Amino acid sequence: MSIASFAARGAQIYTCIAGEGGPVWSAAKPDADLAQPDGRVVGRHFEGPTWEIQDGSRVVGSVIDQAPAPQPHAVAWLMLSARATGSGMLAGTRYVLRSDTDGGEKPAGGCTPGQTVRVPYTATYTFYR
């Protein structure tokens, strides 16, 4: 059962790291606001991945499945298992779905170790019990 859905707007942050074959972009770290359908920002999404709502509830997720986004240059759609804390809106969350993504894909081409880039993205995050 869905308990909440939020529109996310922000960036996927990539850092260039040394890889076996040369420098590569790291896995993304999100930095986004979470908004209700009326546009009111009620929380944030950040590294972990973690979602935190202003009522104090928090969810930390772990990817269990993914599918390529239908939009070109968009981050994948994800299904995550979740661990919720707090007694607010997200209490009892067991799964999170990231869908409707636009943008956020890691840069194409090479990089210089230590270089960081913020790639704008939007998505919908739906929380399930």
Automatic annotation (TrEMBL):
InterPro entries annotated for this entry? DUF3455
Q: Per the record, a Pfam family?
A: DUF3455
Q: Which domain of life is it from?
A: Bacteria
Protein name as annotated:
DUF3455 domain-containing protein
This chain's source organism reads Methylobacterium brachiatum
* Lineage summary: Bacteria, Pseudomonadati, Pseudomonadota, Alphaproteobacteria, Hyphomicrobiales
